[in-house]
Design brief:
about 200 residues, 4 helices, PH-domain like
């Protein structure tokens, strides 16, 4: 006759196949609610162009200003303390390209837009090289909202739609938080009604 080994206090008891999983354990000791507010707004499939928030430009300017400050700090450390004066050349090129990008950024932001049509969402961007992408609702597999720390401070988000074909994935930057949530909820709802076999 074998004896059952003693279980030390503090160690979890082994599970039997006959035991029922405690579903309440999933929420025990956790926060009571998520800190993101969901809107119940739905967008109309109106076929008109919608644009992004102007706060996107401000957020990008601040992020690029921080990037320029970091490049200057690294170049100064290398040039002054390590006597590597050649670093001012690549640092100057990087800063010049960043400043040129910031000059055209407001115009680029005005060229970004999306249109909700009956069967798909159309996304456009670009000034000289324009790009327009139509994503059928039934092909969407994932709708994702992302925010960096500075984007969150300025109240803008990026919405990403993933489809079966990687080339038709779309990212819409600079959406206001409420607009991103409403667009996400609308896309999920419409995609469910138009789901097609892949």
């Amino acid at each position: 006759m074998t004896q059952n080994p003693q279980i030390e206090p503090g160690t979890p008891a082994p599970l039997n196949s006959a035991e029922v999983t405690d579903l309440g354990a999933l929420d025990r000791g956790t926060y009571s609610q998520l800190r993101t507010a969901r809107s119940d707004a739905r967008l109309e499939l109106d076929g008109s162009w919608h644009q992004i928030s102007p706060r996107y430009v401000v957020s990008q300017v601040v992020q690029n200003a921080i990037f320029i400050a970091v490049v200057l700090a690294v170049a100064a450390v290398l040039a002054l303390w390590l006597e590597q004066t050649w670093v001012w050349i690549p640092a100057g090129v990087i800063i010049l390209i960043t400043l040129l990008t910031l000059v055209i950024l407001p115009r680029q932001a005005k060229a970004i837009g999306y249109m909700l049509r009956a069967d798909d969402i159309v996304f456009r961007k670009g000034i000289l090289w324009q790009r327009m992408i139509a994503v059928p609702y039934g092909r969407m597999q994932l709708v994702d909202i992302t925010q960096g720390p500075l984007d969150r401070a300025f109240g803008v988000s990026q919405l990403k739609m993933v489809t079966a074909a990687a080339t038709t994935g779309v990212q819409i930057p600079g959406l206001a938080q409420a607009a991103a949530e409403a667009l996400r909820d609308t896309l999920i709802e419409v995609a469910e009604t138009r789901r097609t076999g892949l």
